[in-house]
Amino acid sequence: MSRSSVFILTSLLISSSALAQEDLKQQIFEKVFGNAVILSPEMVQQVNEGEAGKRHYVDKDGDGIPEEVWFIDTALRHPEEMRPVLVRAIDEDGDLREGLQPDLDSDLYVADWKADGTVDAVLDYTDVDGDNDLDEMGSYFWDKGGSWLERPSVRVWWGRDEGDDNLLWYDVGYTYSQPLCQYRTHFGGAETFVNFGIGLEDKVWTPFFENPFLFYDHDFDNVTEEVLRLSGIDYRIDYLRHSFDADHDGTWDNPRDFDCSLSAHAPENLTFDESEAEHITLRGIPTGPFTRYRTAPEIVKGVVWKDMLLTWD
Fold first, then answer.
1. Is the pLDDT of residue 9 over 50?
2. What are the strands, taking DSSP E only, across 12-95?
3. Rg (Cα) of the chain, in Å, rounded?
């Protein structure tokens, strides 16, 4: 076989594999979000041909109240490699009006990087108690598979505002990037976040890696004094990180002033009980277990860790 033939065959195989990955990604996104992530080619064309930033409202039932709005997001925070960022914002609490912006309490944002008609990320904002502010959010994205969850999956960083300060995650391109978002995200006050993933054949969301990451505000000043991260998968605990603002000098301007930290490897087969577990539902699909916010500190106190490192600043 000639070199040119080998090159052509290799290119075809790579192209075929990439297409298969894109198809699988779309299937799993649809498994979670249904028709919300099926982007109408006509709307994609209309938005692409319109003025960047212009809002295109969609009133499906003709009652004069739009259910969704499409646009190219021109915000400067979005990286160039994602632009143009096409957004389909779906109103899930009935308060969108012509000429108004979608909000951050119960709306769903579907993001299409490069505006090519395929979904790349989804942000889901939820108002649980009906007071028109943010209580939970999920940042959903595609993962080809890694060390914790080997199968291809849609993953989500799911966060819950435990202290009702209505502040959660910052995003670029409607997803989380640690270098760009970490110090702009409100990892503070009283909060929970968990990492979940779901594959095409899965019936539940699998909790893994940061499972959970918990922030405690003991004096109710919206600045965290204690942070607890458990790493594992489902009921299994593999690692611990437990940090404290020991001299209590954290402020809004310097909210992560943790002076003391304990990092530990768990003993073999360490698990937590179902009585200590919480399960939630994400987009109608149940999750596996993660430790409850109030009981997690008590769980780790009784463990004899395999090894532990103390860091003091």
1. no
2. 56-58, 68-73, 85-91
3. 22
CB atoms within 10 A of CB 46: 13
- Kindly list the domain boundaries of the chain, sorted by start residue: 1-36, 39-119, 122-313
pLDDT at 2: 61
Distances in Å between the Cα of 195 and the Cα atoms of 35, 66, 96, 178, 287 are: 24, 33, 30, 14, 11
pLDDT, one tens digit per residue, over 110-126 is: 999 999 999 999 999 99
Which amino acid is it at 117?
A: G
Q: What is residue 33's predicted lDDT score, i.e. its pLDDT?
A: 98
Average pLDDT, the chain: 92
Q: What is the pLDDT of residues 49-73, one digit of tens each?
A: 999 999 999 999 999 999 999 999 9
Q: Identify how many contiguous H helices and E strands the chain contains and give both numbers.
A: 4, 17
Cβ atoms of residues 96 and 102 within 8 Å: yes
With 90 as the cut, is the pLDDT of residue 254 above it?
no
Residue 184: pLDDT over 80? yes
- The DSSP symbol for 175 reads B
- Tokens matching residue 216: 């405690």
Secondary structure E strands in the chain: 56-58, 68-73, 85-91, 107-113, 121-126, 136-143, 153-161, 191-198, 206-216, 226-233, 236-244, 260-265, 277-278, 281-282, 285-286, 290-291, 307-312
CA pseudo-torsion sign 184, 187, 188, 190: positive
Tell how strand 226-233 and strand 206-216 pair up. antiparallel
> What is the β-pairing status of strands 285-286 and 290-291?
unpaired
Q: Say if residues 260 and 310 touch (Cβ distance below 8 Å).
A: yes
Torsion, Cα of 44, 46, 51, 56 (10° steps): -90
Q: What is the reported pLDDT for 250?
A: 87
Measured between alpha carbons, how far is 273 from 268 in angstroms, rounded to an integer? 16
Taking the C-alpha atoms of residue 266 and residue 194, their distance in angstroms, rounded to an integer, is 19
